[in-house]
Each structure stands twice: as C-alpha cells, then as structure tokens.
Amino acid sequence: MHKKKKRIEAVWGLGMVAPTIIGLLVLNIIPIFQTLKMSFYKSGDFGRGDIFVGLANYQKLLADGEVWQATWNTLKYTALVVPITIVLAIILAVLLNAKIKGKHLYRTIYFLPMVAAPAAVTMVWKWLYNTDFGLINYVLRQVGLGPVNWVEDPRIALYAIAVIGVWSTVGYSMILILAGLQEIPKDYYEAARIDGASSIKQFFSITLPLLSPTLFFVVVTSIIQAMQVFDAIYMMVGITSPAYQKTVSLVYLFYNNSFKYADKGYGSTIIMLLLLMILAITAVQMKVQKKWVHYN
What we know:
Elements: H1 2-38, E1 41-42, E2 51-52, H2 56-62, H3 65-97, H4 103-115, H5 118-128, H6 135-142, H7 157-182, H8 186-194, H9 199-227, H10 231-236, H11 244-247, H12 250-260, H13 264-292
Antiparallel strand pairs: 1-2
C-alpha cells in the first residue's frame, strides 16, 4: 500500500513537471543540438540542399574580424547595462520597500517597460533620439547645447542603445530584488537599531548579505539577457549606418547571415560562439558565487 501511494505521488509529480520539461526539450534543448549540427553545414543555393563542410565555418569565424568586433560590442553592451541596471534596481527596491505613499503605483510604473513589446519601446526611443525632431535634442537646444547624433555617431551609438537596455530591464530586476528584501526578517533591523547601527551600516551588514542569493540570480539572468541583445540594435542601426560596426551584436550578426545572406550554417556557428561565451561566463559566476553569496 505504501509503495502504491509513492508510485501515485511520483506519477502526479511527473505529470506536473511534464509540460515544463517538454517545453524545455522542444523550445531549448533540441534546437541547441540542431544549431550545433547546422554549424557544420553550408546552405545550398536558394536555401536548398545543405552541404557538409566540417569545420570550415569555424575556421571562417576565427578569421572573421566582423565577428570579433560584434563579440566586443556584445561584451561592452553587457558591461554597460548590467551593473547600472542592478545598482538602480537595488536603490529603487530599497526606496519602494519603505513606507511611502503610492508605492504600489510606483512599482507598476517601473515594471511597465518590461511588459511593453521591445519593438514598441525601441520605436519610442528612436523618435526621442531623432537628431532633428527628437525630444532629447530639443531640450538640449533649449539649454543652449547643440544637437547630438545619438544613433548615427559610432562613438556614442552603443551608449545610447545601452540606455534603452537599462530603462527596459530595471523594473524587472527591481521587482525580484524587492521580493528578496521582503523575505528578510525585520528582527535583524530592530536588533541593529538597538545596537545603534546607522541605516547605511544596516544596509551593508544586513541587507546586502541576506539579499545576495537574489542578487546572484538577478546578475546571472541579466547577463544572459544582455548578451542576447538584438531588438534595440536591429531597429536603431541599419547595415548602412556609420555606427553599424560599432554596435552590431552577435545575435544581429547571426540574423544577417542566416536570413539576409541565406547562410544558416555560418549563422549557427556565430550562435554557438555566443552559447559558449554565455556558458563560460555562467560557469565562472557559479564558481565565484561561493565567495559572496550567503545562503541562510
């Protein structure tokens, strides 16, 4: 009877997780192996009859300066967006965790960009950045400054796109950190106040250590998301733009090779490079987290 009960529980448990497992297999795991296989092939004429080329795509990738420029752009974008997003998210979460009026409304407002379609968000920012009619340059003119070519100037285009990345994701990170803050027992803060600890001392001695598991999750997921940047760059910067070489990301390069140049084999090779980079960075984070993440 006991074994039968355990078997029923196991069947129910498998039934509950089956949709997620099937979804991961169909949408994530199987496509990874299909992409790996495709990276050893070259698309035939008019997209028909893939031709096995072995390691030729990887040899081409190693000698392709555009790929390494895109790699640098992707890493630079990630280095710009992730730290700023997390710092702002922590500040906002701490402020909205306090007793202030309308905090639920503020939380909703900050989270809204995450709900909006990336294409719609980028179109709004594209108009804001418009050299002749954009609101940002209009304000600059009003204060006596000249207009800035936010999107076409290779020196600043990636920074302008990074601003969109921060604005779009800070709300999501804030909500996760806020949830982590609300899990911290209030007793710690009461004991710290009795001992005479200031608010800053409480933040660094109590809040950050107890929030570290949540921060670790936010850092890992934020880096993975930033490394896959595509929408903002694709809609902001065209292939003929002067800023293209300084902004093109690995996913944008994959899109161009796979769909514009009809070479899905080489596009798959570029994505395999991105996958290896994400795996390596995540592995390093998993190793380093033992030194700064404190689990209760």
